[in-house]
Amino acid sequence: xxxxxxxxxxxxxxxxxxxxxxxxxxxxxxxxxxxxxxxxxxxxxxxxxxxxxxxxxxxxxxxxxxxxxxxxxxxxxxxxxxxxxxxxxxxxxxxxxxxxxxxxxxxxxxxxxxxxxxxxxxxxxxxxxxxxxxxxxxxxxxxxxxxxxxxxxxxxxxxxxxxxxxxxxxxxxxxxxxxxxxxxxxxxxxxxxxxxxxxxxxxxxxxxxxxxxxxxxxxxxxxxxxxxxxxxxxxxxxxxxxxxxxxxxxxxxxxxxxxxxxxxxxxxxxxxxxxxxxxxxxxxxxxxxxxxxxxxxxxxxxxxxxxxxxxxxxxxxxxxxxxxxxxxxxxxxxxxxxxxxxx
Amino acid sequence: xxxxxxxxxxxxxxxxxxxxxxxxxxxxxxxxxxxxxxxxxxxxxxxxxxxxxxxxxxxxxxxxxxxxxxxxxxxxxxxxxxxxxxxxxxxxxxxxxxxxxxxxxxxxxxxxxxxxxxxxxxxxxxxxxxxxxxxxxxxxxxxxxxxxxxxxxxxxxxxxxxxxxxxxxxxxxxxxxxxxxxxxxxxxxxxxxxxxxxxxxxxxxxxxxxxxxxxxxxxxxxxxxxxxxxxxxxxxxxxxxxxxxxxxxxxxxxxxxxxxxxxxxxxxxxxxxxxxxxxxxxxxxxxxxxxxxxxxxxxxxxxxxxxxxxxxxxxxxxxxxxxxxxxxxxxxxxxxxxxxxxxxxxxxxxxxxxxxxxxxxxxxxxxxxxxxxxxxxxxxxxxxxxxxxxxxxxxxxxxxxxx
Amino acid sequence: xxxxxxxxxxxxxxxxxxxxxxxxxxxxxxxxxxxxxxxxxxxxxxxxxxxxxxxxxxxxxxxxxxxxxxxxxxxxxxxxxxxxxxxxxxxxxxxxxxxxxxxxxxxxxxxxxxxxxxxxxxxxxxxxxxxxxxxxxxxxxxxxxxxxxxxxxxxxxxxxxxxxxxxxxxxxxxxxxxxxxxxxxxxxxxxxxxxxxxxxxxxxxxxxxxxxxxxxxxxxxxxxxxxxxxxxxxxxxxxxxxxxxxxxxxxxxxxxxxxxxxxxxxxxxxxxxxxxxxxxxxxxxxxxxxxxx
Lengths: 343, 403, 293
Description:
The complex is a heterotrimer of chains A (about 350), B (about 400) and C (about 290).
Chain A: H1 15-23, H2 26-53, H3 60-65, H4 71-80, H5 87-99, H6 113-117, H7 120-148, H8 153-167, H9 170-184, H10 200-236, H11 238-246, H12 250-288, H13 293-303, H14 306-334, H15 336-339
Helix pairs in contact in A: 2-14, 7-8, 7-10, 7-12, 8-10, 9-10, 9-12, 10-12, 11-12, 12-13, 12-14, 13-14
Chain B: H1 2-18, E1 49-62, E2 65-78, E3 82-86, H2 93-101, E4 108-116, E5 119-120, H3 126-132, E6 137-140, H4 144-147, H5 154-163, H6 166-169, H7 173-186, H8 192-195, H9 205-217, E7 223-227, H10 235-252, E8 255-260, H11 263-269, E9 272-277, E10 280-286, H12 287-292, H13 297-304, E11 354-357, E12 360-362, H14 374-387
Parallel strand pairs in B: 3-8, 3-9, 6-7, 7-8
Antiparallel strand pairs in B: 1-2, 1-4, 4-5, 9-10, 10-12, 11-12
Helix pairs in contact in B: 5-7, 5-9, 7-9, 9-10
Chain C: H1 6-17, H2 22-52, H3 86-122, H4 124-139, H5 142-153, H6 157-184, H7 187-194, H8 199-235, H9 247-256, H10 263-290
């Protein structure tokens, strides 16, 4: 058995032998390469954030304590937060702390960042994950239906709708949804978050509108991409002709040939989207009063709490980088051309 | 000998001439009859035609303009034999075979007739056509690197072809897998059990094309269309794949339509050759007959453009001047007229494809001189009877595909 | 390769190339000019409207005149809760949005285009470093860092432009880089290099004109993104500071009294939607046209 087929299930060979083959596999090499590449990006992200926030004119300590504070008070605060040190020194302090899981203490509430983050991350994660599930879950069938009869009625209607949906800003959409479903119809709560421990039904109900506000533009984007890519495949790829020449039915050609190949492009697109999506939670959490990371960031921005802003910007960026990493790995695992290398 | 020509054309000539509506684009003369060349009696038994194409026409309409890709094509293929359709790109050779399989885009309008046994293919519903595709009619495409799905294992792609016709072969998943391995053995793919689990990119070009052939064979086709099936391969592999096709054709008794622009390949492997130009057949004969006695100036020009060992080094090859015709605005008369060295005034009236010599059909008013003198004729028939292999004699090209 | 094979693909492209029937040409014309016309109309009415049309100023309205409905005398679209004319605020707000969008995209194309083209053309270590830096910038959820930048610089039109340009530049640089890389392989580029033309000349004469169409069509799409993001910043109070109007802060103001006077949210939302839609369509059509599809 050759090295390229190392990941194939084999009955023969000791566990060690299999491991050896896996270690030499192109997949593992690719994953290691991606992880190694993500590290300098994360580093760069944190440096950049520090640098940008150090551009703030004026003194955050003075700004926090107000005009009436004495110079001694300000100086004490500056020392407490290390603001008297140079930029690189402060970055070093932060980095060593962060690597030990200590993200510092909020300048406004004097709470530790870890306790402030608390279970806020779960709210944001729920919002993001639900949005992905909803948008992809609807986009795939709609795109398949549209691509089945290109130029047909369903195709035209869905393309016009998705084109419009793509142009709607998510905050406008959020307000529109609140106006219709909360204010006019009164079906769903306009704002607020029900914790999952208070019942999953209530929790989901409170998440419907925020999820829709995030998912609809995303759905439009995915539908348009997927429909276009599938139609291109159906018209331009020889293996689609082969499948048709085999006598395979049209839906099966669409699903297991065109879509199967399009899904790789979709994965890439999803990866590129994660950053935007995570950023979008800031405004959606603000509108729907969801106690997530985005809301905390905005609080930090409004109270000029540099520690909170700094940590959250880096956390958001790290989420985007890591999600991209995950997508890259997923792509590699799913694509046989990468999984087994080439001959 | 002479008498037998007549009897055979009587046998099959009549019904072909009248079948199929003749929808002519403006400015084109519709020839009255669309005959096919007949087997010469000297060859012995006559096998029955599996596929009979009569006056096939394909037009693409888009935004008000019409491109006439195929303009009245007629031929027939018999079981266990290979017909080569030769032409430049744009001559309609591929389009005509895709039309048979219903693989053209919706903008294509196909008329005429194509009978596979008792089944009329033209105008067949997509659903009925799907049952035929991959079963009675199969196709191997040009580029094996692109015609296999890169994300599916080889085995799954063959099994899919078998399972698509489960109502006919009655095979369950297990049976289909066993049959797939059998097919891989049939196309002589090394280590079929292992290759079954591999992906296309792990195979070489020749192996991929063997897989494509295995897929095509999944439904025991009566007619196999090889659309430039060896063009993307290197010469050695090309010869291997052609040998495989010829072998399978004989063993399984399939009819093979081989589409190519390579005259050498046609000369080496096909029993009959049909030369297409601007969507029409311009010359049609048995391979030996055609190559030893080229009559149509276009075919002659094609042959002239091939370098040969006897060509003096550094001499310029003759090229066919001018451009292939614009199929949306075909000229009056013979489509080759603007590029033809023999063209004269009467070429403004389109010549019909006629049987000018027994078994040799061409469409030209001013053909090249026939080399078939009575003496040569006698010698030729003698040698054919002796060797029995196609294209073995007097053919300057026959080495082209075997190298 | 198209549906059929090389030869029939050739046929089909021949049909297209040889000129379509009037109906097809008319449709293609409409596809480009409806969004282009809309964009021109929006630009004209936002920049010329406030001076040409007989409407009151965007700020400094009389509170006594607040909350008037549409078609009330002197106020075509009514007044907001501060008594300011809604139409006037829409136009001035649009002016701000468009100005920011245009500035950000011009900065993006000039700086990002130069970085991307030079980086791809020079190649080597320089290219690697530039790409890593761009990766860092692209990794950021743009709204998040824009928020931080806007906060640190303080809300103003100029600072909003800076904050947004921060993300436009790397995106454009990426596109310029990839299309320059493709160009580098072209025979005419190699010919120019062999002729000994200086680098700046090759970049200006050969690279720029070939990369420009892609960047311009991207910029049209980018206008939509910038306008929406600017709206988000203003909505959060970090973009254009009140009382100066912007579509974002108008939506925010309207949100406060949404159940009573929903129209206050609706007007700027429609303006935003139409503008973004027009730019998106324009961008997509330009891209389709220039990529020869």
